[in-house]
Amino acid sequence: MNTLLDIFWRFLLLGLTSFGGPAAHMGYFQQTFVQKLKWIDDDSYGKLIALSQFLPGPGSSQVGFAIGLHRGGLAGGIAASLGFTLPSFVLMYLLATTAMSMSNDYFLGAIHGLKLLAVVVIADACLTMSKSFCTNTVTVAICVFTAAILLVLPGIATQLTALLIAGTIGAFILKPQSKSKPEPFTMNWPALLLFLALFLGLPAAMLLANHNALLHLTNAFYQSGSLVFGGGHVVLPLLQESLGDSLSTDELLLGYAAAQAVPGPMFTMATFLGAKLLEQQPLLGATIATLAIFLPGFLLVLSVHKYWQALANRPLLSGFLAGINAAVIGLLVSTLYQPVLISSVKAPYDIAAIILGFFALRTLKLPIVMLVISFAFFGFALALLY
Questions:
Q1: Are residues 122 and 47 part of one domain?
Q2: pTM summary value
Q3: pLDDT for residue 39
C-alpha cells in the first residue's frame, strides 16, 4: 500500500506541473523516475518511449502507466494513471461546467481567441510530425493523397479506409529489410481480447440498445482512443467524426484549445466533451468519456509491454505502421482546414493573429500557457472593440 501511495503521489505532483504536451512529459518522467528516483534505468525507459510510439493511444500517459506497472504491477499502473490525469480532469471538468453558464460576448470572444490558437497548434503539429513520419517520396505521397481524399470526402468511413490503405501500402513498400530470423513472440492475451471485445462489441451493443446515450458516449471515445496514431492532436478529427452533430464545432475547438493550457495529458479534452455531451449529468459524462478514451491505450500496453520488441522488429508490421503514421499527417492537414480553419477565421486580423502566434510558438518557443493567455485576451479585446 505504501508503494501504491508513493506512485500515486509522485504522478499527482507531475500531473499538477507537467505543462507542455507529450514531449515535455517524457522529459519530466525521465528527470523524476530515471535520474532522481531511479525506478527505471535509461535503457528500459528508452524502450518504453519506443513502445508509446509503436502503439495507438496517449503516448506520455502510456509511458506513465508502464512505469507504474513496472514499479507496482497493475495496481501501480492504475495509481500512476490516476495521479497524472486527475488534476487536468478536474480543471477540464470545471471549465466545461462553468462554460455552460457563461455565454456573454466577452466570454465568447475569449473562446474565439482560443479557436485561433487551435489553428496555430495544429499547423505546428503537422510540420513537427511530418519531419518524423514523411521522410521519403512514398510517405509524402501517402500524406498528400490522404489529405486530398479527406478534404473531398470527409467522414469516419473515409478516415478508416484511408488508414487501412496507407498501412497496406506501407507493409509492402516501406517494410525494412531484415535478414535475421524473427524472434518468438507472445503477448498478454486476456488484455488484448478485452481490447478487441470492447472495440468490436461496443458498436454492436449501441445498435442493439437503440443508440443509448451512455453507450454512444462510451463507444465514440473508446473508438477514438483505439485509433489515435501519432499523438494527441490526431484525436480531434477522430472525435469530430465519431460525435457527429452531438457537439458544435465551437465546443470541440474550445475543448481542444483548453487541453493545451492545462498540465497533464491532452486526452483530457474528453473530460470537457463528455461533460458537454451529458449536460444533465456532467460528472458522469466526463468520467465515462475520460475512462473510455484512455482505456484502449492502456490495454494495449498491458498486452505487449513485455514482448513488444520482438513484435516491433517484424518488417511487415513496421512498414504497416510507417504507412499509417504518414496518413495521420494527411488526416491532420485536412482537419486544419475543416473544421478548424473555416470555423475560426472571420477577418484579416484573425489571420494576422495566427501568423504572429505561429511565429511565437515555432520560432520564439514561447510556453503554450503564455499563448493561451494571449489568444484569450486577443479574443476578449476584439469583443470589447466590436
A1: no
A2: 0.76
A3: 92
